[in-house]
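## retry 2 of 3
previous attempt timed out at serialization; input unchanged, resubmitting
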Amino acid sequence: MQEHEIKDGFKLWLSEQEVTSLLDQAIHPKARIAFGLAARSGLRSHEITEVYPENIVDTDAGSMIRVEHGKGDKFRETPIPPELKTTIETAVEFREQGVNEPVILNTKGNSCSTRTLRNWLTETREKLADRGQDKYWNEMRLICMT
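## retry succeeded, writing output
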């Protein structure tokens, strides 16, 4: 943990074990995918809500997520682990909405907001804190989702 220079609170980097705990305890599969996009591919919350199946591409450098409008409205590509890519492809294939909607939809099947992502994170964080898995879960507000 490191004190944040601009905002109240701390910056927090999760260990591999903590990321695994977060993903394992996600409140539902959509949250697990969203947290994976943040923790494993480095996407920001607004980027997560804008990922469509067509944004996940195979390149000479491996599988990537193309972010059309990242921070500062800049284009970027970021790697996606093969298992996360497979999970997303499988989830999209078997959902009612098909491939023409964002990867992450809210529980009603509509586009997901950053507020929804933060709510999912809060619920998961509280679940982990209640289990006493780590002293930092009580302090954490956002994980790689700013």
